[in-house]
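To whoever is on call:

I kicked off a structure prediction for a single chain this morning and the downstream step that reads the tokens threw a length-mismatch warning. I double-checked the sequence; it's 286 residues and nothing unusual in it as far as I can see. Pasting both halves so you can look.
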Amino acid sequence: MTAAPEIIPFFDEPTNTASYLVVDAGTKAAAIIDPVLDFDIASGCVSTASADEILARAGAEGLNIQWVLETHVHADHLSAANYIRERTGCQIGIGTKVRTVQDAFAPQFGDTGGDEFDRLFEDGETIALGDLTVEVIATPGHTPACVSYRIGDAAFVGDTLFMPDYGTARTDFPGGDARQLYRSIQRLFSLPANTRLFLCHDYKAPGRDEFVWQSTVAEERERNVHIGGGKSEDAFVELRQARDATLCAPKLLYPSIQVNIRAGRLPPADDNGVRFLKLPLSGQDL
């Protein structure tokens, strides 16, 4: 096991998203995990304040940003991965099953960007971050492309798990599967009990007044309200599917998907020079 990384969190309250600047202190090599591109759906305004905050901190620390690591194709915020790549020259990595997600949405959105990602990671693959080793763990279930990144005593688990008092990720997106999610979480639960888990979101569970985005394997294994305490696979699947049936689509679902399957690159402009995001319609044929 490699040394523990330095981890600097950034929380975007409008999308309830935690992003991370992960640093090898000895070499100043750094990665950014799940960065947010600011987007106001009412006006269509896109801005980079959240990403610029991370870049400013990295610059102040003299860091060399080598990677943007995406845990999955997010459905609740736009990714700033491409913006950060343009600013730093870093690479963008995501799980290899992103191809499955791109194919699922191609009938709705047409061109999904092709090879916008620099690296598609296989389960068990490792990359270097300075003197640290980043291990890729496939954790599908929320989406087919979900991966977690284990770095030293820390693991970045995306939407697979939330805080113990909030539970687990939904599995009703294309290619999602509650049974797969259960088995992915068991892989995470097999890590050492003191492994720090860094989550992609927090929504303040009832009775809690502050945002929190870090737990441990032991805490999740013992107290997670959906899957902790040794819950069986069948019981979890029944609970998860029943809960998913009550959930509304995320507010930024379609804007997020169109951008994030392109590694954070906005759709190309129309002939009039304006970029547009598509919104599929359903319901009555008028």
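Update from on-call: the warning came from a stale cache, not from the record. Cleared it. Sanity check on the structure: The chain has one domain: 6-260.
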